[in-house]
Every structure is written in C-alpha cells, then in structure tokens.
Amino acid sequence: MIDSNKKHIVLVVEDDADDFFLISRILKTVDFKFKFDIIWVKDGLEAMDYLLRREKWQDPALSPLPSLILLDINMPKKNGLEVLKEIKTHETLKNLITIIFTSSKNELNIVLSYELGANSYIHKSSEIDQLEKKIKLLFSYWLEVAELPSRASDHSS
Predict the structure, then answer these.
(1) % helix / strand / coil in the chain, to the nearest 5?
(2) Any idea which fold 7-145 has?
C-alpha cells in the first residue's frame, strides 16, 4: 500500500486534450483518502523525457517519480506500447505502476500490454458515469489497497 500521508504524483500520458480534461475533472471531484498532483504529458516521447529527466524535465522538482502512470496506447511520436516496453525494461522505472488507459479494445493490444508488463489494462468508457467508476476503483486499489515494494525517490538515468 502506498503511504497515504505523502502527496502522490499521477502521470497521465494522453494526446487527446478532451480525454485529459475529463480524466482530471473526475480526479479533482472524487474524495480520495490521499493527496495527489496530476502531471500531463501529451505523447510517448514526452513521457520518457519526463521519466528520464530529459529536455524540459531535467529539474527533479519538475519531474517527481510518479506513484501511478495512466498510459494511452494510440499517441504520436511514441505509442503507449513502446513507452510501456521502455519503462518495464529500464532498471529505475520497471516497478512503476503503469496502467494502460485507452479507448482501444483490440485483443492484441491487451495481450501485448500484459506481456510487456502493464499492471492493468482499462478501457476508457465513453459514458462519464462508467469512466468515473473505473477511475475511482483504479485509484482506490493501486493507491490505498495494493501492497507495493518501496522504491527510491530518485529516478535519474
């Protein structure tokens, strides 16, 4: 279980501004037992820049290690499966909770996501009530219920 006294970082890797707005709006309206900040990156390349502290994310204060990553699959520059593979094969990133959160119901994407080490694969519902329910369950499980190994706060490359 992640420490509920610390402020968690949720990294949302999503190229669609409307989807991000909806996700962040839901997160801001739900009363969780923990505090968190949401960081948005708009493609897979920026996600890896954030996680590896490259480009504009070099300052550790701007790129704290996320407690949870919500990762879309269909994105420009580097898709979510490529990002997932890179995260799960990188020594300092491989234990990050990485949730595929996508509109894709493609069976091959589901299989590949788990083969590459995704912690969960969640279909983004187009119905707001269903989407809110999924996000509540997802966050409650990963940030309140699950027992996870502790990890170093630094994640430099």
Answers:
(1) 40, 15, 45
(2) Rossmann fold (3.40.50)
